[in-house]
Structure formats: structure tokens, C-alpha cells
Design brief:
By secondary structure, this protein is an alpha/beta fold. It has eleven helices and five strands. It has two domains: about 60 residues, no CATH class; about 160 residues, Rossmann fold, CATH 3.40.50. A five-stranded parallel sheet has the order 2-1-3-4-5, with helices on both faces. The radius of gyration is 22 Å and the shape is elongated.
Length: about 250
């Protein structure tokens, strides 16, 4: 399948260059006055924030600067990620064949040997704007006996690596829908290695072109699970590797 491939690094460099040009040509004193007016209005409740933002934009304040002027007072919104347990196993485990039960036995056996359950972090890095699919996957893994952590939307590789290490996970499941996988995966692996945890398993799920698979494997991905993957089969593969790397 022919696809348009975008060089994320080149795009980012181009965007930074444009921002630098904007900041070099504007009146920075006026911009600072406009941004301070926004912060004051957010703090006092007096004034129209939209109107003040438009004025600041006309002076060539950037969207990030305008947002941060409000953030100084209001903080940054953090979406709450919640999962529901029991739903996946109830719908999936039908008939004589019960793959969820098989995975559950693997996780139970690991917990008995290791003293804790296998732990996975479902991470949404980059500019993916929703986490519905990640919630489904997280629910499924929880029903199969994993301890599951959910990262917030728009997480950076550095933040993901820190959360993985702080929570002492065995595996990071990186969910990708916004075509950032060739940039984010290597950076995540790099961050984990820099922090001395290259033993943590990293898998990739989501919409990944097949021609990118080899690149991701070469840069540290243990497995790639595309659309249509049967989650119990993916969980079995993960558990086999968890047992190989972490069983004493």
C-alpha cells in the first residue's frame, strides 16, 4: 500500500524555525504586555479572555504563549482515564475455548512465582487526540490478570519512561494512531536505556504501516500488534517474554 510518509523531525525543525522568525520580527514588549493582561484577567475574573487572546495574537503572540498565560493561573487540564473491569472477559470468553482463561492462568502463575502480577503501562504518546482504543486494551489486560497503568494523553517519551520506571512495570504498550511511531518508539527506548531499564519490554499497537515494522523492530520494539489483533494472543506473547526476562 502506498502511503505518504512525513519526516516528523524535519517538520518539527521547520515549525521551530517559523516560530523563531515570528518572534524575531514582532514587538516583544507589546507581546509581553498582552500576555500579562491575559494572566491578570484570568486571575481577577475581570475582562474578556477571548478578546485579550485575539489582541495578543494580532501582536504575533503564539498559541503556546497565550495558553501558558492562562495556565499560570488555572493550571493545565489533565484528562482522567478510567477503565471498567469484567466487561472484556464476559464478552470474549464464550464456548469451550477460553483464551482469556489461558492467559489468566499464565498471569496467576507468574504472580505466584514473582510475588506480584505482571504490570503493563498503556502509553499514549505524541499528538493522538483520544484514548478509547487504549481503554479497551487496558480493560482487556486487567481482565486477564495484569496490573495496568494508563498514561495520560499527549505524554512525551521522557514522561512515559519515567512513569514506567516509577511504577516498576514489566512492559510498556505504546499506542500509536497519529503516525509518530518512527520518532516516538526510538526515543522511548533511548530514555529507558538512559535510565538503566532496557529490560522493560516495549510493544507497539495501533495503525502501523507494514513497511515500518522492520524499522521498529530494529529500534527496540519487541512486538507490533496492528488492527484486528486478538488481544489474548498478544497477551500470551507478552507473558512468554515477561517470563523469559523477569522470572527468577
Amino acid at each position: 500500500m502506498e502511503i505518504l510518509e512525513v519526516d516528523n523531525t524535519a517538520v518539527r525543525i521547520s515549525q521551530i524555525k517559523r516560530l523563531q522568525e515570528v518572534k524575531a520580527k514582532r514587538n516583544n514588549q507589546k507581546v509581553e504586555e498582552c500576555l500579562n493582561a491575559i494572566t491578570t484577567a484570568a486571575d481577577t475574573g475581570e475582562g474578556n479572555l477571548l478578546e485579550l487572546a485575539v489582541v495578543a495574537a494580532r501582536e504575533r503572540a503564539t498559541l503556546g504563549e497565550i495558553s501558558f498565560a492562562i495556565e499560570k493561573v488555572c493550571g493545565r487540564f489533565q484528562a482522567q482515564t478510567r477503565t471498567v473491569s469484567g466487561v472484556y472477559s464476559k464478552e470474549y470468553s464464550t464456548g469451550e475455548v477460553d483464551p482469556v482463561h489461558d492467559v489468566r492462568k499464565m498471569t496467576d502463575d507468574f504472580a505466584q512465582k514473582a510475588g506480584r502480577r505482571p504490570r503493563i503501562l498503556i502509553a499514549k504518546m505524541g499528538q493522538d487526540g483520544h484514548d478509547r482504543g487504549a481503554k479497551v486494551v487496558a480493560t482487556a489486560y486487567a481482565d486477564m490478570g495484569f496490573d495496568v497503568d494508563m498514561g495520560p494523553l499527549f505524554q512525551t517519551p521522557e514522561e512515559t519512561a519515567r512513569q514506567a520506571i516509577e511504577n516498576d512495570v514489566h512492559c510498556v504498550g505504546m499506542s500509536s494512531l497519529a503516525a509518530g511511531h518512527k520518532t516516538l518508539l526510538p526515543k522511548l527506548i533511548e530514555e529507558l536505556s538512559a535510565l538503566g531499564r532496557e529490560d522493560i519490554i516495549v510493544i507497539v499497537g495501533g495503525v502501523i504501516p507494514h513497511q515500518d515494522y522492520d524499522y521498529l523492530y530494529e529500534h527496540g520494539a519487541f512486538a507490533i500488534f496492528g488492527p484486528g489483533t486478538r488481544i489474548p494472543e498478544a497477551a500470551m506473547k507478552i507473558m512468554e517474554e515477561v517470563n523469559r526476562r523477569f522470572s527468577e
